Amino acid sequence: MQITGMLWGRKLLDLVEFPRSDVRGPEISVDEIKEMISKHGQVFIKPVFKGGVGKKGKSGLLGRVNNIHDALKEKERLYFATHSDGNSVVKANGVTFEGGVPADIEVYFSISDNTVYRAPTMTITHHGGVDIEELPEDKIAVVPFDPLTGLKAFHVSNALMSLGAPPQIISPLVQHLPKLWDLYNNYGMLMLELNPIRMSTAGGRLTPVACDFKCAFDQDDPAWKRLHLPSDLFASDDSDFEQEINQLRTYQGQSDVYVINDQGSITAPTFGGGANAMVTELLGEDATISSDFGGNPPYEKMHDISRITFKYWMEQSNVLFIIGGKANNTDIYETFRAMADGIKWYFQNYGPKPLFVVVGRGGPNLIKGMGYLRDTLDSLGLPYRFFGHDSAMSEVINYAKAVNDWMKNGGKEEIKKALNIK
């Protein structure tokens, strides 16, 4: 769940009275556009996307105008612009008009949960703004802090002084940046980023002005609901499959999914973030989805997840690849029993399907769970191969890919014959 851009970012920044650029939505009139140009000298026109879509400016999805004729042309060009980011193609729905902020210095600032420090962490630099990834490490300050006390002025001051920041920008940033901790902490955010903050000289003194906004919410933390954001803000770009799975999110068990390739042929229900990263990378375009169903989901939830996943992806899949690392607290028997029952449900409702099942897992009640899954697959006549926790995950993934190639080159027909599928 992400928000990018100033259309909604302005509303969140106003909650903590953080200075921001003058932002108007697509409903702005021609006369109001003229007034903005007259007031600010130039206006930036940006398409409105839901979720993160990479760098719009470098993709030509940013208009900079100083007259009404060009403003209307850019509005027409960008209102329904499309943007490709990897396998994802998203379509804009509207634009924002944002007043220019003259400044000589741009600042990058973010707060995010950091797994290295196991604490919220501030990242800040005054060396450039939008191109932070191109900066060397010694020009960026990364400062973890105690979530009980929050982000304080001295965190900001010490970080900027360690970077050798100009003294004149330190005081205004120290006054305003700690406000963002209240926004981050009070509304269930996982990440908040302002990039860039331009140090405006308007009014005779330096003021940090937010010119772009991004944040991500923890969907399992109900605090974000206090913002009363529209229900379609996050969901409209999700597939039907993703929306159905997201409805199952609870305090117990993960249900994070993302469609990788809707023409893929390996469906891999995955358990654990590390396993998810490796599986997604090594399967590549063969994978239908990227998923993390770890966290010890109860039988009922895992059964629902299985039925939804199989309903959408079983028909086109050659391989059902159930994969995860060695669990510490996940009851493997419960998850495997739920998935086995999900496979039976699919066959009962949609008929037999030529499928090869590959399993790689470790953890509590593994043998009992594999036994239940084996008995189910034997009763359905499906071929399978199981790997335990002592098998290298990369080799198990390569085995699943090899099975997929075999299925494409005659294996599927062999299984059809064995199942009497015509």
How would you describe this structure to a colleague?
β11 and β12 form a beta hairpin. The protein contains 13 helices and 20 strands. The strands form five sheets. Strands 1, 8, 9, 10, 11, 12 and 13 form a seven-stranded antiparallel sheet that branches. The mean pLDDT is 88. The protein has 422 residues and is of the alpha+beta class.
Secondary structure: elements and pairs:
Elements lengths: L1 E3 L1 H10 L7 E2 L5 H11 L2 E5 L15 E3 L2 H11 L3 E4 L2 E4 L3 E5 L3 E12 L4 E7 L15 E4 L8 H10 L4 H10 L2 H8 L2 E12 L6 E4 L2 E5 L14 H4 L4 H7 L9 E4 L6 E2 L2 E2 L1 H11 L5 E4 L6 H15 L5 E8 L5 H19 L5 E7 L3 H15 L3 E4 L5 H26 L4
Parallel strand pairs: 15-18, 16-18, 18-19, 19-20
Antiparallel strand pairs: 1-13, 2-7, 3-4, 3-7, 5-6, 8-9, 8-11, 9-10, 11-12, 11-13, 14-17
Helix pairs in contact: 4-5, 9-13, 10-11, 11-12
| Class from helix and strand fractions | alpha+beta
Q: How many distinct helices?
A: 13
| Major sheet characteristics | 7 strands, antiparallel
Look at the structure and give the mean pLDDT.
88
Low-confidence stretches: none
Kindly, what is the distance between the CA atoms of the first and last residues, rounded to a whole number of angstroms?
A: 44 Å
Estimate the helix proportion, in percent: 25-40%
Short description:
The protein has helices spanning about 5-15, 30-40, 70-80, 155-160, 165-175, 180-185, 230-235, 240-245, 275-285, 300-315, 330-350, 365-380, 395-420; strands spanning about 1-5, 25, 45, 65, 80-85, 90, 95-100, 105-115, 120-125, 140-145, 190-200, 205-210, 215, 255-260, 265, 270, 290, 320-325, 355-360, 385. It is an alpha+beta fold and about 425 residues long. The protein starts with a strand and ends with a helix.
